């Protein structure tokens, strides 16, 4: 299917059985989301509210952003229909991170290993947005409802209706978007944005920190920072971590708690930026990967039909046959990363940072693990 296609009203009506309530999979102030079958592909179709001026603005914003930004941890926009303000996305069958946190429909709880991986994927998506050239991109409404999970439980950022492109400065001056009508979601909302009307990359950092603390504790967003801060002060962190995730390694839980609290500092100047966050998270993810068996997808009800996320190429989203490590430290399918480099890109597909070189190192350990897993499945 061609990306960013223009679909007709009749095509979308046929795909959704005339926008049947039976196919509705989400609903909010923005409008409704439907599951549909379009050109022999299962898709998610978001129909924005035509009676809302905000609906038109969000429609235009999503199209503008998602036709310019591509990343493995950002949802793909397939196309749109401007006649009825409707957007067509790739279908992500495992719902939102919020669904998984509340175990909607009696689904299994995410394990601590899976939560650590999700944190890393959200981080990479934000690193990419905040380093986008020539204009960095601020999400502006980061929350578990706007983080979706694909068939392999890979996290993807979604809902860019209030996001903003910001021109980057050549100086150290803080870049921001100013508004007299701050929008977002309470609990994840940057307090400085609310008081000043200035949306900055550090606003996303605040929201990210709340999500980290939620994944760690399973507690609601409101007042979660105060709860974790008090547990750190009294040495009772282990009593508030989410036990449905399994037995958290104490050192990992403590590091994630400290990271989350640094991100939600009320003074945005004291918050980390996302590249600093990644420098903290990367070794934690590596440690978590070493602690869990390669054959586990990271969920408490492991099903061998699931594909371990380590085996999936971040670019092609397929099981790797010839995994190679690039200069950014990530492993890709050799053909996919070579194609990326041959197209003239000199940045990492995962972080958007400049690659110091284009050399590739075969990942023999992972290749053997994939081969063994395929033989037994």
Q: How does this structure look, described?
A:
- The protein has eleven helices and 15 strands.
- With 377 residues, it is α+β, with helices and mostly antiparallel strands.
- It folds into three domains: 5-90, Phosphorylase Kinase, domain 1; 97-291, Transferase(Phosphotransferase), domain 1 (Orthogonal Bundle), CATH 1.10.510; 312-376, Herpes Virus-1 (2-Layer Sandwich), CATH 3.30.40.10.
- The strands form five sheets. A six-stranded mixed sheet has the order 1-5-6-4-3-2, with helices on both faces. It has a three-stranded antiparallel sheet with strand order 14-13-15.
- A hairpin with a 2-residue loop joins strand 3 (31-38) and strand 4 (41-48).
- Helix 4 (112-130) packs antiparallel against helix 6 (201-217) and helix 4 packs antiparallel against helix 9.
- It is globular and about 60 Å long.
- Residues 293-305 have low confidence and may be disordered.
């Amino acid at each position: 299917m061609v990306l960013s296609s223009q679909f007709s009203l009749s095509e979308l009506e046929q795909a959704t059985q005339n926008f049947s309530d039976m196919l509705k999979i989400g609903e909010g102030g923005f409008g409704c989301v439907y599951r549909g079958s379009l050109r022999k592909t299962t898709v998610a179709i978001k129909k924005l509210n035509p009676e809302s001026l905000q609906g038109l603005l969000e429609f235009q914003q999503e199209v503008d952003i998602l036709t310019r930004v591509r990343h493995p941890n950002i949802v793909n926009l397939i196309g749109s229909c401007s006649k009825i303000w409707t957007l067509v996305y790739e279908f992500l069958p495992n719902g939102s991170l919020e669904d998984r946190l509340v175990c909607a429909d009696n689904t299994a709880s995410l394990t601590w290993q899976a939560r650590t991986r999700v944190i890393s994927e959200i981080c990479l998506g934000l690193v990419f947005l905040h380093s986008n050239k020539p204009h960095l991109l601020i999400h502006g409404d980061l929350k578990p409802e706007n983080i979706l999970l694909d068939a392999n439980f890979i996290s993807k950022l979604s809902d860019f209706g209030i996001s903003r492109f910001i021109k980057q400065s050549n100086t150290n001056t803080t870049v921001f978007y100013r508004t007299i009508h701050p929008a977002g979601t309470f609990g994840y909302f940057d307090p400085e944005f609310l008081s000043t009307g200035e949306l900055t990359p550090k606003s996303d950092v605040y929201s990210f920190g709340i999500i980290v603390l939620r994944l760690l504790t399973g507690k609601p967003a409101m007042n979660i920072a105060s709860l974790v801060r008090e547990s750190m002060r009294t040495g009772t962190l282990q009593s508030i971590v989410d036990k449905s995730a399994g037995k958290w390694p104490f050192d990992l839980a403590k590091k994630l708690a400290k990271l989350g609290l640094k991100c939600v500092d009320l003074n945005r100047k004291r918050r980390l930026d996302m590249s600093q966050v990644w420098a903290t998270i990367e070794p934690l993810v590596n440690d978590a990967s070493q602690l869990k068996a390669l054959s586990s997808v990271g969920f408490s009800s492991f099903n061998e039909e699931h594909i371990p996320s380590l085996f999936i190429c971040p670019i092609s989203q397929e099981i790797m046959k010839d995994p190679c490590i690039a200069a950014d430290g990530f492993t890709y399918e050799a053909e996919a990363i070579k194609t990326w480099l041959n197209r003239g890109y000199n940045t990492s597909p995962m972080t958007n940072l400049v690659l110091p070189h284009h050399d590739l190192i075969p990942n023999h350990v992972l290749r053997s693990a994939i081969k063994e897993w395929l033989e037994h499945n």
